[in-house]
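User: Hi! I'm working on a homework problem where we have to compare a predicted structure to a textbook description. Could you give me the structure for the chain below?
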Amino acid sequence: MKKFNQFLCIAILTLFSTAIYAQATITGKIIDGDMNSPLPGANIIVKGTTNGTTTNFDGDFTLNAASESGEVVISYVGYVTQTIAYSGDTDLGTITLMSSDVGLDEIMIIASVAVDRKTPVAVSTIKAEEISLKLSTQEFPEILKSTPGVYVTRQGGGYGDSRINLRGFDSENVAVMINGVPVNDMENGAVYWSNWAGLGDVTSTMQVQRGLGASKVAVSSVGGTINIITKTTDAVQGGNIMSTIGNDGYLKYGMTYSTGLNEKGFAATVSASKISGDGYVDGTEFSGYNYFVSLSQQINDAHRLSFTAFGAQQEHGQRFNRSTIAELQETDSGPKKANKDWGYKNGQVYHQSYNFYHKPQMSINHLWDINEKSVLSTAVYASFGSGGGRRDEGSKIGSAEYRIGSTGLTPIDFDRIILENKANGVNGSSDIISSSRNSHEWYGILSTYKNRVNDALTISGGLDGRYYIGSHWYQVDDLLGGEFYLDNEVNTFAFGQPLKVGDKYNKDYDGIVLRYGLFGQAEYQLTEKLNFFMAADISNSSYNQKEYMNRTITGSRKSETQSFLGYGIKGGGNYNLDANNNVFVNIGYFSRAPFLDAVFINEDGIDANTDAVNENVFSAELGYGFRGDKLSANVNVYYTNWLDKAVEGRIPNDNDPFFYNLSGVDALHQGVEVDFRYKATDILTVTGMASLGDWKWTSNASGPARNQAGQVRDTITVVADGLKVGDAAQTTFALGVDYKLAPKSNIYVDYNFAGDNYASYDVTNRESAGLPDVWKIPDFGLFDLGMRHTFELGSFEATLNGKINNVFNTEYISDANDVEGLAEKALVYYGPGRTYSVGLKVKF
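Assistant: Happy to help. Predicted structure tokens:
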């Protein structure tokens, strides 16, 4: 027995010593083949084991393998996986991971993606891996809520009704581009995220370029640029199926498949999903279909064509009308869920406020590699939108008397209204449901030529042309039991004529926009450490309005063309102090044409606003970056002076309303932003950011209010100097912890805080000094918790995601309209409480 024990000890020691001597240390550096920059967070795993690590901020990694020889698998979402052999201690050197997307080059040229430690702009980049990890059932813009300078809310809480502010500027003044193509509404600059509800499934990279940004298109933004790069076609054959369930009946399922790149240079990727649910807020049921198609054909060594189409056909109930805090607190549903804009009709849920829209976008991209130094990338695109939003006419819908129940914001009793409308007989319906219809056709071309003159100088330039026609009208949808709707008010253009289902009324006009411009940019690499850029653009915006319904005549008439010349110039430089530290500066000035709705304030007429002028913006920014082995951090200080901001509006006056457009209303947005990412260990990563803004109006102004004949009938005065800019949190910070349970499994916690959030308000209501300050929304902070686990499911790889948003069910106000600076009179939206989701994706 003694000998046996000795033998066992020797065997164990031998095995232990063999394991020690059999170990190998593998090192290397992984870079992105598209931008030649380090790829942090790439996975390196010893094949056939769970032993792995990830790259640091410089793309470097060290992996201790238990066996003396074998293979490592290197992977990153959106890139082609590589398998490399090792033997003993091995330095694999620099490994280049190429994008798995065919046709990405031409998009990257047009989309103006910023490069770390080179492009002198403040930028945050979110890759597909983080989107798939954290988006869950959130609205697509909410993936950016931990980004400096960003404030995101769901507004009323309807599907796709979210909004985003960047450095205090709303979507009208933030350029949103998908694959380099601008998607802001051509008439008013707004972005309707419900049109792009499926982007979370197909986004490859999303960049938030704050301030001047790197965009080359011929119309500048004020707050910054949100640059969304979708998938193109995968070079590798395969796909996935996925399904997600969540609170309040949330259900989403879909599939993606790619043919891979064949020998003839062709590749195709298709993706489709269906989504539905009851909505967190009462009366916000939704359903939608999301789709994406990408085809690519390599013609020869010099030319490649690709076609991309995507869209989301959706419909959803809305919480359109806001309520006071007291009204919401009294409801049985609670303030977070209460909604006054829905009820029951014939025992079924029926919506007073309802949105339905479909806006497919398609583009053909051509990449021409002219020679080894120059390339031309051109995108021809089109978009066709159709849909609208349901509203009501009459005084009964929404009133307390016509609700089911006696207190609070209980559902609307549509059945009672129907019975009364039927009883009206020859008098017709007193209340009806109508819709504001909006459709458009949008065509454009965006072409960029890029030439590397020499090792130091690269120039680029091109053209940006767009044509848009948007049609807008009101239409009767439901007479609610009556035979017709009779409205003698002149403003509805019914003129005492009975209206039936399908009839147009109130407005019927087209807004027509033609915009074209040129842009150019030069990048100069003075030394290995120092580079500069200079960019300029010039554009012409022409507007027309054609009306088919007005107060005095029948038939149609068209306005005279109104044209505005805009221009911009910006420049900056980046200096890499050493391998870890860099500083940058940028400065710019641009003059932007007003939007169409400022040129034609009266949407029912063709008379142009003679007071419409360009808005001018001066912006400057200073930034510092640090890239270390474990820590990556950025500090940015910005100053944006918005001069001659257009403030337009309409004053009801019986049948002769007044219109005004004030210039000389200035605003200053300045602040400091800090963000960091700290990889404490191979399994623990901490992220954070803080954004401290000081946004306020800096001038008073006055101007005339004119009637439709152009006669001055009143004077509008604005006393705004020193008032805080509203509608977005001026102080935000975030902190996140990600713990890796295994090479492909992790758990994370995120905290987001929003403070100094002043309610939105109409600055023209501030007509004298001494009025109450704008109401400040109470500060709030939210915790999110999530996990991901990747495992083998037979011969397939499966990923399970779980997410809880607002873990502690915090009650908070996300949006508010100021009324006299008083909390009790403010009209508010509460943000959602605790929500959850569980999703499974299986790759094949």
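For your comparison, note the following. The longest helix spans residues 2-22. Residues 10-21 have pLDDT under 50 and may be disordered. Good luck with the assignment!
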